[in-house]
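Objective 1b. Sequence-to-structure analysis of Metal-dependent hydrolase.
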Amino acid sequence: MDPLSQGVLGASLTLSVCKKPHLVSAGMLGLLASMAPDLDTLIRSSQDPLLFLEFHRQFTHSLLFVPIGGLICALVLHLLFAKNRGLTFTQSWFYCTLGYGTHPLLDACTTYGTQLLWPLTDERYAWNVISIIDPVFTLPIVILLVYAIRKHNLWLARIALAWAVIYPSVGMIQRDRAEAVGWQLAKERQHTPLQLEAKPSFANILLWKVIYVTQDTYHVDAVRVGSAIKIYPGESIEKLDINKDFPWLGSDSQQAKDIERFAHFSNGYLAQDPNNKLRIIDVRYSVIPNQTKALWSITLSPLANSESHVEYSTHRDTSPATRQIFFTMLQGD
């Protein structure tokens, strides 16, 4: 999730359990500690463009690391926000750990994938119940927390925390509705999916991207699950076949290893870009949910030596035409 959502969720939890004299400091500790795990984005390399993908949402987002992350935050934040307000270091550690612990759980509610149980497993958990940014989730929490601090009313913080649980729960119901539509679509097309997932589109839990996998193909559709169901039939694209799509690629080359790393990050949802035969796309994400136009990709080079990395690129189509298509679908038109 975005830093603001992470911060206010952490603050809502610490304010919900603190005593009134600790209200400001507990809220500040929860706010800052809950944003700290995303400092892993600083782990980058100019030589290895996929290094940040490997470490983002990895050890700093593991539930096993939460007490350690809370301790590190307390060591930094206690002197700044808590010691002069009467909190002991143990109390600061407690509030920081609570705030820090909300971060990986909220991230797992999104579609990106979070290594909750690292180092026991490197599996990326993605519950697909909320978008990476969703103002309907975040703004009520912000408003309630502002009033909780101004009015010294801890119950407002508890209501904010309740909303932070209720909204993803509604998202889970919406996800299951979208997946049910996806299974019905596949049945009508006489397809037998090997895997099917529904993912919320940007900033809402009303319009969903449904992806299902057959033997050689990804099928992408959009489904609006409001009081009525609206289906937007979409595109299909062949699954990546490295031997067929890149016959010149050495199996021991760094580029081949980078494809494996990108596949792990993308949960295997890879395809060759039809507009650029040297590009591999992550099929899971697109601005328009019934399209395969990816938000990020890697590009290979047949001229690269065996130690050269792939090129990583992001693709953000925010043109007026794209926005209009998205909002038209969101409105159910």
